[in-house]
Design goal:
disordered N terminus; Jelly Rolls; six-stranded antiparallel beta sheet; alpha+beta; 14 strands
């Protein structure tokens, strides 16, 4: 009986690690302190500056990228040793003038995700929400060292010196401890016991 309970507890523990619970890992509203999961560090924009514009999402600061036919900005994070990050969504609000590049590509590490067209080229995009799914990416993390994750937001295809403004940048996903080898064994043992018990009930 004790072995059964131990194995079932192992099964529950293993399933809890496998069943990710999606959460907000990072949020930058520009005018407020950055919200960051305790197992992440970093998250500062590589270029650009905070500005107060007459047209914003919340009437306060937004992030201004360089003007032109194209523009880009990067964010870099580190996942703490002993943890892995499974990312689900990258979201932000954006304002683009008509001459700005409306073709957006998000690159995570060395992986460029499919391009997205925001609004219509040549027309003003007055603060719309953009959401990019990240579920196709592998987990980031290591048992013994910190793991960097870089995000590069690139806008291209402009017809003149357009302006680029972003706000409310958020990243969603899950961060879980890297299981120890014995935890894998306990979880597999629990699965085996559960299968055996189910078969006995059917008989």
């Amino acid at each position: 009986m004790g072995i059964r309970i131990s194995c079932l507890l192992g099964l529950v523990s293993g399933l809890c690690w496998i069943a990710d619970v999606n959460a907000q890992l990072f949020k930058n509203t520009i005018d407020n302190p950055i919200e960051l999961d305790p197992h992440l560090s970093g998250g500062v924009f590589s270029s650009g500056s905070a500005v107060t514009s007459g047209t914003t999402t919340n009437g306060t600061d937004v992030w201004a990228l360089g003007n032109g036919t194209s523009s880009s900005v990067s964010l870099t994070f580190s996942v703490a040793p002993g943890y892995t990050a499974k990312l689900s969504t990258f979201a932000f609000d954006v304002r683009l003038t008509g001459a700005a590049g409306h073709t957006f590509v998000l690159t995570v590490g060395s992986t460029s995700l499919p391009a997205t067209t925001i609004g219509t080229q040549g027309e003003l995009v007055d603060w719309v929400g953009v959401s990019i799914p990240l579920t196709s990416l592998e987990r980031f993390g290591s048992a013994s060292s910190s793991t960097p994750i870089s995000f590069t937001m690139s806008f291209s295809g402009g017809t003149g010196s357009g302006t680029y403004r972003i706000d409310n940048v958020s990243i969603y996903g899950t961060i879980t401890p890297v299981p120890e080898p014995h935890e894998y064994a306990v979880a597999m043992g629990g699965l085996l016991v559960a299968v055996v018990l189910l078969r006995r009930r059917r008989v």
